[in-house]
Q: What sequence folds into this?
């Protein structure tokens, strides 16, 4: 039934849906997980690295995390080629604003401008939408730290914590339980939380630093600092998580033994 | 009056031993009237890369903004600092794009290679013809005077402190012989691990 209405992006189906946009989101649901958490003193983006083939020559800065301009970075989930085009456009948008106003572009405006571009591909031109969802982390002088998510439809939202890509629904429900919504979580606690969520949602036996990439954005000396964590630092958080899990397991076992006795 | 002499400026750069220096006057004037004595004509484009822009003041500011645009995108895409020689090509390209309606600036570039620390200086005309030298480059309304001073005072392999003295004397005595430049001077000494910015006390006329 749907087949007759999904070959062109620019028309609605009888039920009022845009199938091409939904199929694009389907493509993203198979891509590597990307999660973002906002803390009181910074933001982090944690991504699952999929290109762990030994033959791959590691030349680029990062597989999924892109710097957009001084105060903002993003991570992507979906078709990498589409992501490259969009991140290039984001960088141009930011620089054009700086050229015109001699100040940095506010985070929401950058997201909003790109989403207008994405929306155009769902309404006219006869081209397919971009198969990418993007998580943005940034700082501006109006609203401080912000985390945004945008998807192929051109819709965007501001989040405290969110996830895109493979198993994102599981991750989001876990975040809903664990994220304390009182603005007191600090970056270190957020890092621990991100490792916990990734470990539970990634379908692999053991979490190691070469399978994840974590970037943080903080403010130091009135400047925004964006860092990609090095393997030893990630290892510290993974170890902490594993120790806590082991403790929880031991306690559960004690309870179970007590009940038996 | 030539458009390049409307606002007046004097800028020069010199090579030293593992260092470069770039210096400029600070006058912003409208023909004979001096409007301010703290007009910046030297801009930082990277930790060890500076460009001096003498000429029409509005183009000084516009070229600086447009250059920053291109440089930011370069650093984001290539994920590294630009080399001075490549930066020179970028400036040259920007100016030649306006071949038949040019920006009225004749830039001076001074910097150190980000990896090797090798000194680099270059200048170009308003349509982007580059000139790389191993001793000094000058640009501005009193360029003839500056050429004369540099030719007599410069010698190779000057240490940073000596380079500072040399470039300061060369610049000051040159712009003192020019009505539309002067009113204070600023000198940047660029070494591998630090950049020193010094203001000179000069004749205020």
A:
């Amino acid at each position: 039934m749907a087949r007759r209405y999904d070959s062109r992006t620019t028309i609605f189906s009888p039920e009022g849906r845009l199938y091409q946009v939904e199929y694009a989101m389907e493509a993203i649901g198979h891509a590597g997980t990307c999660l973002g958490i906002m803390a009181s003193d910074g933001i982090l983006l944690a991504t699952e690295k999929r290109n762990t083939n030994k033959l791959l020559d590691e030349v680029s800065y990062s597989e999924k995390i892109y710097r957009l301009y001084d105060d903002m970075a993003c991570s992507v989930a979906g078709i990498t080629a589409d992501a490259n085009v969009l991140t290039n456009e984001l960088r141009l948008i930011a620089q054009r604003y700086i050229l015109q106003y001699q100040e940095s572009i506010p985070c929401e405006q950058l997201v909003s401008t790109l989403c207008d571009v994405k929306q155009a591909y769902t309404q006219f031109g006869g081209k397919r939408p971009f198969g990418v969802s993007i998580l943005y982390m940034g700082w501006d002088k109006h609203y401080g730290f912000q985390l945004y998510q945008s998807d192929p439809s051109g819709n965007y939202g501001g989040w405290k914590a969110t996830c895109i890509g493979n198993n994102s629904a599981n991750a989001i429900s876990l975040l809903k339980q664990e994220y304390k919504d009182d603005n007191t979580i600090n970056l270190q606690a957020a890092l621990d939380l991100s490792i916990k969520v990734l470990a539970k949602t990634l379908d692999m036996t053991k979490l190691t630093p070469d399978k994840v990439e974590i970037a943080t954005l903080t403010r130091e000396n009135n400047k925004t600092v964006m860092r990609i964590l090095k393997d030893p630092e990630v290892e510290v958080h993974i170890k902490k998580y594993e120790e806590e899990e082991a403790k929880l397991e031991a306690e559960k076992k004690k309870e179970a033994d007590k009940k038996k006795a | 009056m030539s458009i390049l002499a409307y606002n007046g400026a004097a800028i020069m750069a010199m090579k030293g031993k593992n260092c470069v220096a770039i210096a400029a006057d600070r006058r912003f004037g409208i023909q004979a009237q001096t409007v301010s004595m703290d007009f910046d004509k030297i801009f930082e484009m990277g930790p060890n890369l500076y460009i001096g822009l003498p000429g029409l003041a509005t183009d000084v500011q516009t070229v600086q903004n447009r250059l920053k645009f291109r440089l930011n995108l370069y650093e984001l895409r290539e994920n590294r600092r630009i080399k001075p020689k490549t930066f020179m090509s970028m400036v040259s390209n920007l100016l030649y794009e306006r071949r038949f309606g040019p920006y009225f600036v004749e830039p001076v570039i001074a910097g150190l290679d980000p990896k090797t620390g090798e000194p680099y200086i270059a200048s170009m005309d308003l349509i982007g013809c580059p000139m790389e030298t191993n001793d000094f480059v000058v640009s501005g309304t009193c360029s003839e005077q500056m050429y004369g001073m540099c030719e007599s005072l410069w010698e190779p392999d000057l240490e940073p402190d000596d380079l500072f003295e040399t470039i300061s004397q060369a610049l000051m005595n040159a712009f003192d012989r020019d009505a539309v430049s002067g009113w204070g001077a600023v000198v940047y000494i660029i070494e591998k691990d630090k950049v020193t910015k010094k203001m000179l006390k000069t004749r205020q006329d």
Observations:
- The mean pLDDT of chain B is 96.
